[in-house]
Each structure stands twice: as structure tokens, then as C-alpha cells.
Amino acid sequence: MRFLRAPEFPLADPLRKDGSRGDPTAPPASPWRLLAWLASRNKGLAISALVTSGLALGSLPVLPYFLTGAVDGGLRERDWGALAFWSGAMVVAGFLSAGLIVVSHRLTVYWRMDASYRTLQLATRKVNRLGDDLRRRLTTGEVVSVGATDINRISWAIDSLSPTAGCLVGLIAVGVLLFNTSVGLGLTIFIGVFIVGLITGPVLNKLQDRQEDYRERVGDITGRASDIVSGLRVLRGIGGEARFTASYRRDSEALREAGYKVAAPQAWLNALGEGTPAILLGVVIWIAARQVAAGDLTPGQMVAAFGYTSALLLPVHWLIGCTYRIIEGRVAAGKVCELLNTPEREAPAEVRPGPAAGAELHDPESGLTVEGGELLAVASAESDLVARAFDRLGGYTESEARFGDVPVAALDRDELHRRVLVADHDAYLFAGTLAAAIAARDGADRVEAAVAAASAADVVESLPDGLDSALDNQARTLSGGQRQRLRLARAIAAAPEALLLHEPTSAVDSHTEARIVDRLAEARAGLATAVATTSPLWLGRADRVAFVQGGKVIATGTHHELAAEHPDYRALVSREEA
Which residues form the ABC transmembrane type-1 domain (predicted)? Predict the structure, then answer.
């Protein structure tokens, strides 16, 4: 079990921006090199698996050697002692070969799981480092397919390396043994294997191309299925379920056609794997029979030649299957490489200490400033531009934003995200108990207060076990308004110095919204809170309102001041009230 120890991985990106290699143990950026990197991380395990596989499969063709002694030295000479000796030796060799196969298989499984665990860690750490950038740079289908199919296929590609090595040793062993028996028989085997290799090469290239197309379609349809499931309630509400179902059906049919195209070269490979040994067996027996008739071979040698060639059946069959798995693994490794080489935001060259508590946040691009201790409402008809400003303040995009007198980009990201929280209205809710979903990292002692501030007590009471009730992924059994209040409760429980909320009450009724506005203002007293909203309830309760047009703050003041002085603001708020 020591082969299954948890591997340690570098957190560095595989390649620097200038193309140079970072950490020397970081995974390579190309598919074949990634497979080789995964296979070579635990060298002791890799060598053990390869050696035992070579001995196990390489010893199979040797077993017929004992038939030569049994036939020629025992049966022909009627020497029962020699017959018993050679027969017993063949039985012992068979047991040894079987034992080696068991050991080789166990080591190969350890090797496969080691590679699978390493790939999973690499992908998980990359996703964690990408953070909120993940949704901008990769589709849901691409990420899900890596975890659902690619990691498994890579592990099976690594699993195929040891039997591939063993099969090659077996082929060489058969050729050498037949050469010792007859030069003509040995040449027959090597020429036959060479011809099979020439035929197999183009088939493997076509298989790889079609596997890549199939994998692309798997990612597309996985992403579409995820979109449909996450938006099913909305699709049904607007009558779009049938349209998206039809689209999914078309994608599914295209995927099926791509699968059929993969099956054609795979069928050729299977035919070669099954047919080649049979053809070689027939040719070898024909040649051996003629040599026995001519007196060049003994009957025992002919029987051994038959046994040697018959021993090719298993290695060739396995070799074809392993080759197919390795091709699948190469395609999967290409997708993992795409994930691993997704650009990340650069870490600050010099991490600076954060500002004192209560420092203001300022975004020069929009002119938005969130002062310590205030409730700020940010009103705009273009809510996406306000969301971008919030992302800049939270350090999720490159910008010149500042936290106090320190550039946001120069702060330690963990410290920044602990002190400044950007809470989106559709933020992800993970599966688990309701209490755990609200507490998140370190808000366990603030759960009940946060539930009250978010006016979510009725949500807790509606569940069978209250805060201990289990929620499924994304809490899809709850309504949109209930989920939104849970997200708000989670943000309040985190208790950051600056909380940036984007449309936090867009899915609740006005009475619930009024309670949330008052309770949140009380719960966040003395802490900075910015709310992107056009709701008069928030605007009227805010200490200050920032009016944004075209992504720029054009005016600040109280709700009543802006309504009196700016017609555009008044029109925006009037539409909301209407």
C-alpha cells in the first residue's frame, strides 16, 4: 500500500508566460508528455509494474519449450522419467507465470490509481487557482468532462503501459525462440508483425482524429445538459423546455454519429488483433510441417512452434486493446492540458500588507468609492457594468483598484477575499446541510444571526430538520427567492469588512425586501456594504447613492438629492417604482 501514498504536487503553473519551464517537477503542457510525466512520478512503482509484466507475459511463450523435451525426450524415447520431469517443470513454470501475472496486475492497478489521483489533484488545484475566472475561460461541459471521463481514461492509459511492455517482450520472446528452432519460422513472425505495424499505423491516426472529435462533442453536450438542468425551472416558466430538449436531441444524435465513426477504426484494430495471430499460426504450422517432413525439425520442435505461435494470441489481442486505451488517454490528456494551461491572473510580484480596518475601496476606472462603515447603493440601468466594477474591487479582474492606499493587485489574495467579499445573486450553493451552506468557511457562530438578517427564518422552518436539513447541489428543491436569501445569509455570516452585493433581493417580494433592507443595515452597522440595485427600498435606506451611467459614476448623494437633481436617475427610479 505504500505505492498509494498521497503525492505532492507543485502549485506552479506548467508554463510561465514567456514559455519557460517553471518548477522542474511541474506537469508538461503537451498530451504525450503529460502521460509520460504521470507515468514517471512514482518511479519505483513504474519499474516494478513494467518488470513484473515483462516477466509475466514474456514467460508465457516459454511454456511450450517444455513440450519439446516432453515429446522428444519423453514420448519419442519412451523415457517416462524424462516425460515426468518436463511435464512437472511445465506445471511449475505455469504456476510461476500465473503468480507473476497476479503481482503485475496488482502493481498496475496501484500505478493506475496513482496517476488518476495525481491528475485529479492537478485539475482541482488549477480550478481552485482560477477561482471566479473559471466561468469566463472554460465552459461547464469542458470542466465536467475532465472529471467525469478524462481522468478515468488517462488512468486506463497508464494501466495499459505495463501490459503493452509485457506483450512486446512476449512477441520478442516468441521470435527468438522460433529463430532458435528455425530461421524461417523466426523470420515469418518478425515479417508478419512488421506488416501488421504498417497497417496499424494509419488506423491509429484515424482513430485518434475521430476520438478527438468525439471528445469535443461530449464536452458540448455535457455543457448543454448542465445548462438545461440548472435553468429547467426558468425554461418551463417561459415555455422553452421543448426547444432546448430538441436542441439536446440534435446534439445527442451528432454525438452518436461521432461514436459510430470511432467504432470503424476500432473494429479494424479488433480484427487485426484477432486475425493476425490466426494467420501467423497457419503459416508457421505449414512451414513447420514441411520441415518435419523434410527431416529438418523434430515432432517435438513442431509442437513447440505451434505452442510459441499460439502464445501470440493473448499478447497481440492485449496489445491492440492497450493501444486503443492509450489513444483514448492521449486525447483525454490533451483536454487536461487545455485546463492546466488556462491563463491565470499573475500573482503580485511583491505582496504588500493590507490597509487598516475601515479603509475605503476605490475603482479609478468607474470612479466608484466604497467608504468604510457606510451602506452604499449603486444605481444603474446597466447592472453588468456595476458587476464588473465590483469584480475589480474584489480583485477578480486586473485593474488599478485600491484598498486604502494599497493596490488591490498587490494584496495577498486570501487576505483580500477574506476582507472584501463580492456576493453575486446567482452564486453557487454546494450540497450539504443548510447550516454548513450558510457558515461556509468560518461563519459557524453567526449562522442564526445571518438567517435572521436575510429574512430566511421561514426557509429554515420549512425544511424537515431545520438548519440540519440536507440540501442537494445548488439547492434546486428550493425556490429562486429562497435560494437568494440563503446566498445573502451566507454573505452576511462571512462578516467581511466590505460586502459588495449584486441585486441581492431581485427574486423576493417587496415586503420581504423591506425587512431585509432594515435588518441588513442593522447587522452591517460599522462595516462597508455596497448594493447594486435600483430598488427604491435600498436607495432610500442607503447612506449614499452612486449613480452610474456608461460604467462611470456621474453623481453621488442621497436618494432624494439625486432624484431632485438628475432627470435620468429620477426616470430610472420611477420605472422601478412603476
Answer: 49-328
